[in-house]
Amino acid sequence: NQGNSKVTFWNDLTNNGTVQVTSASTVAHFGTLAGEGSFTGGGTNFIEGGLSPGSSPGTMSFDGDLVLGSASTTLMELSGTSSSEYDRILVSGDMTLGGDLEVKLIDGFTPEVGNTFNLLSLEDGDELQGDFNDITGIKLDSDLTLVPVWSDNDLSLQGAVPGDANFDHVVDILDFGF
Question: Which residues of the chain fall below pLDDT 50?
């Protein structure tokens, strides 16, 4: 779209190419946004429906701000430990989290303790704000969970033993911060 424009997608949109959202413009997505295309131009994408990056799995990139609204559901699929084997969202602007995050294992993949999946990445200097209302699919069994690890500009999931707060693969007094 052209500068200072507002566009709304009420139905699903699969982007496996490029959608340009110019600076000072906003695109609102109320259906499911899927694919491994890019959103160029520096504008803002507002997601209030579903967000499903990749083509099971893959990467979706935004050259502007990304806002996940309170009613959104972000589906991230994991099929292995290489960055090409799990869904990723790359943002060149600020990102505001909201809605729910659903993690789904595909292709028979089972993570292990110590595996790390860098799901959301922002460029240095950009801000990751907000939080998900709920995160599902991270409690895998009694011996393994995927723990959200937040930083200023990314979100990763790390395979860990439930209760292992310091990620040393042992649940002990050190996990209580003493």
Answer: none
